[in-house]
């Protein structure tokens, strides 16, 4: 199968453009006639086979988060301006500079021309359009508020990208500092220290305890350093494989949640993600239970996800949302009270958004504090290591000087 561009007219004489997949131009013309259109022009869009292109799009290409946020914003603008979905997708594809983005948009357009809904068409590319994205679009299509829903999605994606970019940029310096520190210490222990200490050994001098300890560490690094590196690599590989198993991953995450500061931060990140997603879907007129289930799918902590599943069942049985969330033990008292106030006043989506904003601010403050403490802490640790190495080298020199004196 190949991809063909076409120009056709409908029964009302309106000209439409689009793309369809087929084995030949003749087949495309027949399909257009079956759809009640008169084909005017059909030409091959690309020479690559659609199957191969589809495989690459799903498993190789993925629209980056910043580009997806901008694309969604442009899509929302076109829809709110009154353009049909098909025409909006064609305009977006013509503006796209990346070939894979253009192909994805044309593929979505082709599915819509065939009679599928936009949410179903987006489901062909799950690596680009998440479950939250598709659920929101489906709700927007049902309620006739697709433009507003896309605008909310664009804001959500932009906010998420800003948070991720902030965290990633903040972690660059600590990561470089840690890597350089480990590399310098390893180099000193493996190459510099042995040559210096061997000078003292050849003099048959009795070495201080601190020098003997440094010599033992250096000898261990030289003899077993490659084994340590291999063990670390094997450990990472084994952990990745084990974390693919849901039972082990759940147990491991339960252990992480018990770590005082780290566990609490993980809980706040996931509660903020749940509240933000729940608010977006609820504002898009998605039913409460469906919105909670979709929001739960973006939660990364399996123990928390299981607890929310129980809460969803309680809400299905008639229990209030705030009470059901409180029983999970993962949501803060403030979040529970905000949700309760939202239920009472009919402003649930607004309260969920405020809760998410608060949780994200708390997480950002904790990250800033942790990074502010990391730099002096790392410098202090490196200073102590360097001091230990300097003392181990200088003490024998001092003893030699005293002996000569």
What does this structure look like?
- It is built from 16 helices and three strands.
- The protein has 405 residues and is mostly helical.
- Among the domains are: 1-47; 173-405, Type II secretion system (T2SS), domain F (Receptor-associated Protein), CATH 1.20.81.
- A three-stranded antiparallel sheet has the order 2-1-3.
- A hairpin with a 5-residue loop joins strand 1 (2-9) and strand 2 (15-22).
- The longest helix is centred in the middle third of the chain and has 57 residues, at 146-202.
- The protein is elongated.
Determine the strand fraction and express it as a percent band: 5-15%
The succession of helices and strands, N to C, reads EEHEHHHHHHHHHHHHHHH
Main beta sheet? 3 strands, antiparallel
Q: What name does the CATH topology of the domain at 173-405 carry?
A: Receptor-associated Protein
The helix content is over 70%
Structural class: mainly alpha
The radius of gyration computed from the alpha-carbon positions, rounded to a whole number of angstroms, is 30 Å
Could you say which overall geometry the principal axes of the C-alpha atoms support?
A: elongated
Instruction: Specify the CATH homologous superfamily of the domain at 173-405.
Output: Type II secretion system (T2SS), domain F
Overall average pLDDT: 81
Distance separating the two termini: 92 Å
Please, how many helices? 16
State the CATH class of the domain at 173-405.
Mainly Alpha
Oligomer state of the chains in this structure:
single chain
Strands side by side in the biggest sheet: 2-1-3
Annotated CATH architecture of the domain at 173-405: Up-down Bundle
Could you tell me the number of beta strands? Answer: 3
Low-confidence stretches: 47-60
